[in-house]
Amino acid sequence: MLQPKRYHPTLVTIHWLSALLIIMNLAFGLAVLINIPNDATKFMPLANHMTFGLIVLVLTVARIIVRATTPQPAPATSGNPYLDKLAILVHVLLYAGALGMGFSGLGIAFASGIMPLLAGQPVSLPQGPEGFYIYPPRMGHDLVSYLLYLVIAMHVGAALFHQFIRRDNLLSRMWFGKR
Ligand code: HEM
Q1: CA 57 to each of CA 14, 21, 76, 118, 164: distance values in angstroms, whole numbers, following the listed order
Q2: In this structure, is residue 79 part of a structural domain?
Q3: Which of 30, 33, 54, 94 to mutate to test the pocket of ligand 1 (most atoms within 8 A of CB)?
């Protein structure tokens, strides 16, 4: 099979949609969600957060399947073998981070009984000073989010390095066009 110049369009769509939803959920989770008191005013924003997070989880599983079953462009190089190895690790951690946020989020949701929010039904939210932290997956959600901030920063940094310093137009591989 011929080696394509770009990723499969399904993979490109999933990549940019996941990027948007993950960044929205990270920014909104940190800046807004955790500052809303655990009363009825939190139902709608929490339901939105859970919905977007579950879409990311489904997209990530779909992405792994599409990646394994479609031909990929040749491995990219940064010009440095150590950075090339680091890039592979960062890509694996991006997948692990997306799955980790989804599964730890589901863990919080099942442990705290808030899944009915997805059907628009009221639930009771944890009232003590620790909030959702009384459920162990909440700490996992925190820790994985720190990992994601780090690997997303490295990933964006690498894309900018390729685009503006190496000028190899690597970004075009993750966009639509003739393969
Ligand atoms: C891409 C997926 C997701 C991302 C990026 C994300 C991000 C975040 C962030 C940044 C926070 C705030 C603090 C922190 O943990 O660092 C948070 C809190 C939370 N998330 Fe997620 N999340 C995702 C998926 C989910 C899912 C699938 C659920 C449930 C089904 C969920 C439920 C919650 C809950 C219950 C909180 C706690 C809110 C609080 O403590 O007041 N998340 N999330």
Answers
A1: 11, 10, 26, 15, 32
A2: yes
A3: 33
